[in-house]
Every structure is written in structure tokens, then in C-alpha cells.
Amino acid sequence: MTSRRSSLTVLFSLCFIPVIAVADEPTNGWRGNGTGLWPEARPVLEWSRIPHGVMEGFRASADRPAGRDAGAASLVKKGLVRDWLVLGPFAVSDSVAEFDRDLIGGETTVEPAADEKTADKTWKRATVPPDDIMVFGTAELPWLDLAKVVGFERNQFAYAHTFLFSPRGGPGRIVVEHAHGLKAWVNGKEVYRSPERGIGLGFYTALSRHELQHLNQPSPRFDVDLKPGWNRLLLKLSTSNKPDFTEMRCCLRIMDPPDVPYENKNILWLTELPGRSTSTPIIVGDRMFVMAEPDELLCIDKRSGKILWAAANSFYEAVPQSERQSKPAFAERVDPLVAQLKQETDRVRRVALRAKLQQTLTEIDSQRFAIHPNDHFEAHFGIVGFTMPTPVSDGRRVFVWCNTGIAACYDLDGQRQWITRVETDHLSYGSSPALADGVLAVFLDQLYGLDARTGEVRWKQHRIQRNIAAVLAARFAGQSAFISQRGEVVRPSDGKLLFRPQGFGSGDTGWSPPVILGDIMYLPKYGVTSPSVYDFAGVAGNEWQPKLIASLNLPEEVSRKPDGGWIDRWTAGSPLVWQGFLYQTDIYQNLYTTDVSTRQMVYRHELPLDGLTHYNAVAVAASPTLIGNHLFVLDNQGSTVVLEPGREFKLIATNHIATQLDRPWPIPAQETLAYAPPIVDGNRFYLRGERFLYCIGLR
Q: In this structure, are 205 and 306 located in the same domain?
């Protein structure tokens, strides 16, 4: 039996492997190479894309400014104005009929201060809840709730006022949701008027409904022209005149317009993509392959960013040609919509076409084409989508797996080799596929082994029932294997379950796949708190018994809040193992570094990031990545920190890509960037954002 000392010696030496050799098979697309290690690259350490518009240096204050400069006014983060003065209530007979009545005798000129009186009522302070990364899973928008200040009665009005400071001034856009009537003035000029309810989103969970159902239901918006320095924003809100809605609140964000100018540094090109995806791009020769919602595989020239071809992988594409020909409705009603969708580039019109296409298919055959996600997947669809799984390639072919249960194979020129639909009772979370010994392993409620040549299902492994993010492929003791997110090991040839770690119950134990280096598996558990290290050297037969050579349990205090309460330190990213240290990030922007040989946490550090968390957003999700001599850690709001690996926390650079999108709802205009880690090619690397694919490096 191997001693603990000799096992740790082997483990410690493996942590120093400088280059990971990858054969044609087994093959992973997860993290681009399965490990997140790119030690031979020499990347740029600084890059940026910064908008120079009205929101640059933007601040707000409920208090009346004392001078012309910004003073102590708070920065407006993510476009959310938080500090207001509220006045009311003002009762009327009919809030709709009397909507334009000036109840304060100077709506266009008012410049209030706290505790001052106007129309015999006192201006009171109100604060909008912040975008808080520590509030995981919130469904509520950050509302300015006037009813909490003035009370609620039917047929009443209240006012909210704030001062806005823009150093440069210029055009801006305000996107707002309001529970009933709303009128707005900027510097005394009326800029918006609606005596009725204006809700396009309502809750963060509705992001999933909009995307899943291909809805085009924007929130109200209006453009403003702000002068340099201080500006006045006055809102007038009403309650309903009917026994229906019982709120008196609004959610408002200010944004740069879509044509805001940018200053770029070390961004070689950016390519607009037809849909979002949280999957990672992969590189095959001179080409990149990346997914786009809801089912597209894109092939991109890695040198120029040009899209070379695209292929849909939908329920309809999986219908055999013989069956299509037997039903005239397909040719008459569906094929024209498919052809039109392939040619359409406008994003709004594409949404409408997809909605019409889905409706038409469901009318023709609801049993085959209706979408039936389970409740949890449906609510989180706005972050997960159908294209969360990363493609995988053997160097000659590219394999796609979607959360719809569709698998497909293409050659590098876009010629489809096969497409398969794996039938399931309902749709749920899929995982990135893996390839080994001519078998494509895919997961959707259970693990399937597909023949990589034909797409036929060769086996099913129903004992693997939970798997988040990815299935991995590896070679242990010279034998190929598939590894689940929970560290379960399956034989590619027949789906035989060879090993299952102890301690994994039916509940949620984490979201991140392990990392395999040689015969060693680093397996996360309970987020970042309890990774284990297994040695698979020498395993054989039908029941594998790898050695558990280390449990790297973090101290209990990392799971305690300042008030002593418990917090689950979940992570969506796999660990990074390099030169004897294991690096992990939790979803709350903390980095944990553990010395593998001593099994002790070396440090925990809150990273200087500014991610966004809500029901369909996770502040930090991408796995940490080693590029050259540095660690790269990303949030979902365009920021990347570059760190020096080792025993101490050393910040080298903080970079930001701040592409502003034309948002239809009051959510931050910042492009979501990135849920996928950087993918490296020589001295360049690529970041996959919600809207764009970025190539970063030197010319």
C-alpha cells in the first residue's frame, strides 16, 4: 500500500507539470483544453474598451448641490440612481383623468431639499436597494417604492426628485418600469408621459420567459439631453384608478445611447454574434467554434473574426428528410420561415421570426415540437439557455450538444455529418460533452454515450443523474474514461460505472467539474470549501479504487458572514492547479488559494471586481485561467484581474471591456462578459461576451 508521504510526493510533483499534452482523444471543450492552463503563452496584461459618453463619471445626489462640481455625490453604478427625495401623497378623484394636474404649483421649476415643504408636504429621503452581489438569487428589481414613504391609496400621486451630475453632458437614455402612471421632467422639460402602467420585465425571472418564448416586450424608455454639470430629474407617479394594481413604484436606469464612442486598447477585433451563450469557444486550426442561442453553431476565422458559416441544431433540423417530405406542411409553412431566418440580421426581427417558427411547428406537431422545460431550468433559462454546453472537436470534426437534447456533428467546412435528438420527458440542464474512444458523452438528466461516427445512442447510464456544466474525458492508467461533475467515472465503451466518490448525496453539492492532470483528479465539493484529490494510477478492472490522497477542506470561517450566519460558497468554475497551489473563486468575487502539499489555505482575498448578481446573473462564473505566468479571473461585467500566482496575493492589472448594449429593460447596459474563461491561441486570447467575441493581443 502506498504511504501518505509517497502519495503526496507524487501529487506535489504533478502540480508542477508545465505543459499538458493532449492526444486526439480523449478530448474536452470545457475551458478550451479541460485544464485552464496555457503556460507557454505570452499575453498582453492590459486591455480595455471604455465608452466616453454621458455616463462617464456620472453621479447623483438627493441633496441640492452646494456648488458646480460633483462634491460628495455618489457614483451611479450600473446606471442605477439610488438617492431620492419623495413628496406626497396627493389624493385626487381620478388619477388618470387628473394626470396632468400640477399638484405642487411648479413641477417644471422645483429644486427641493430634504425636510423642506412644498404644497404643505415635506420632502422625505428614499433609497433604492443596491445591486448587491451577496444577494444570490434575488428575483426583485431594485425598485424606488414611493408607497413605502407616503403610503398607498387608490387615486393618488407622489413625486420623486434627484440631482444628476454628468462631467461631459450629452445624450442619454432612461429605461424605466412603472407600476402605474409616470411623468418625467429633466431640467424642467417634460421627457416622458404615460398615465397607465408600463411594465415590460417585472422580475429578473422574466428574462427567462422573454428568451424562452421569443418575446419582444420592451420596457418604456425615453432619451434625454443632459448638460455638463448638474441636472434635475423629477418623477411623478400615480396609483391606479381601478381596483387592480396596488403598487406605487418604479425601477429606473440611465444608460449611454448605443452610438456612444469608445477608446480601445489591445483589442484586435470584435465580432457581433447573433445570440448570447455561456459556452466556451474552442479553437481548431485557424478556426474558432462558438455557440449562439438558441441552437446555432458558428465557425469564425480566428485571425479576422469573420463568421465563415453557421448551422442550426433545432428540433426541426433533426427531423429526417424523408419525414419532412411526407408532410407538405413542412415545405409550405416551415421551410420559408427557416430560409428567412437564415438571411435576417436584425435582432428584433429575428426574435419575431423565431416566435413564428416555434408557433408554426407546434401547430403542426405539438408532441414533437413543443418546448417542455422543468420549472427550475425554465426560471434560470435567462442565464443558462439551450447552448450552455461547449462544443468539442477531434481536430477533424466538431460535435455539438444542446440542452434541447440535440446532438450534431460537422466537418470543419460546415457539412453536417449527422444530427440526433435524444428524447426526454422534459428539458433540463445539459453539460458540455466529451469525446473518448469514438464515443461522445452527453448529459441530460442521465449520461448518454453516442457513437461519434453516426450519432446513434450506444448506451445510457441512468445512475449519473446530476451533472452541472461539463462531462470530462481523461486517460487514467492508460485507460480512457468519462468523468462527471461529481467525479463519477464511466467506461466509454459500454457506459459501465467504474467509480463513484463517497459523500455525494442526492442534494446540491456544487456546480463545478473537476480538473484532471495526469492520473490525478482534483474534485470540488460544496462549492470551494471541500475539494478532494484522487490518484487513479494503477486502477484496473470493473471496480476502480483510486486513492484519496488529500482533502483540502477550507476553514469553517470562510463560510461565515460577519454576523456569524452561514453562507454557501458556491462556485460555477473549476479549480486551477499550478505549481503546488490550487486556486478557486466563489460566485461572490473571492479567491481562495490552497497549498496542496500542506493541505492548508494560504490566503483568501476579495477581488477588485464589480459583478452583477440576481436570479439570472452570477457575478463570477468563469473558471480561473493561467495564461503565461499570470492568473486571469473575470466577473460578468467586463472586468478581469491579472494576478501573480503564488503564496501571496499580488495584483498586476485590472482591465475592463465596457461595451454598452441597447437594453430593452432596466437592467445594466454593460454587456455580460464573461461567463466563459479566456481561450488562448499563441500570444492572443479570446473572450466570449453576451453580444461580441473579442480578440485581445498585439498586432
A: no
Distance CA 420, CA 567 (A): 42
pLDDT score at 9: 42
Number of domains in the chain: 2
> Do both 340 and 300 map to the same domain?
yes
Distance CA 536, CA 471 (A): 18
Residue 687 in domain: yes
pLDDT for position 425:
79
Q: For a pLDDT cut of 70, what percent of the chain falls above it?
A: 96
What single string gives the DSSP state of each residue in 16-46?
A: T-------SSSEE-TTTTSS-EETT----S-
Q: Which amino acid is at 434?
A: A
pLDDT tens-place string over residues 92-141: 999 999 999 999 999 999 999 999 999 999 999 999 999 999 998 999 99
Q: Global pTM?
A: 0.95
CA 582 from chain centre, in angstroms, equals 24
Q: Buried b / exposed e across 298-325, counting CB within 10 Å, b at 16+?
A: bbbebeebebeeebbbbbbebbeeeeee
Give dist(CA 151, CA 600) in Å, integer. 54
User: Which helix (H) or strand (E) segment is 325 a member of?
Assistant: helix 321-326
CATH number of the domain to which 123 belongs: 2.60.120
Which tens digits make up the pLDDT trace of 539-576?
Answer: 999 999 999 999 999 999 999 998 999 999 999 999 99
Model pLDDT for residues 456-502, shown as the tens digit of each residue = 999 999 999 999 999 999 999 999 999 999 999 999 999 999 999 98
Burial-class residue 263 by CB neighbours within 10 Å (0-12, 13-18, 19+).
exposed
Same domain, 168 and 28: no
Dihedral (CA of 70, 661, 573, 396) sign: negative
Adjacent-strand bridge partners of 270: 694
Taking the CA atoms of the chain, what radius of gyration do you get in angstroms?
27
Which structural domain range is residue 101 located in?
A: 54-209+219-260
- pLDDT reported for residue 426: 84
Per-residue pLDDT band for 442 (boundaries 50, 70, 90) equals: very high
89, 119: one domain: yes
Q: Are residues 610 and 527 in the same domain?
A: yes
CATH number of the domain where residue 463 is located: 2.130.10.10
Residue 205 in any domain: the answer is: yes
CA distance 363 to 369: 9
Pairing mode, strands 625-627 and 37-38: parallel
Contact 39, 17 (CB under 8 A): no
Distance CA(276)–CA(270), nearest Å, equals 14
Contact yes or no for 2/538 (Cβ under 8 A): no
Cell of 65: 448641490
- The whole-angstrom separation of Cα 119 and Cα 235 is 16
Does residue 344 lie within any of the structural domains? yes
The pLDDT score that the predictor gives to residue 509 is 79
Is residue 348 in some structural domain? Answer: yes
Shared domain check, 299 and 202:
no
Name the more confident of 12 and 484.
484
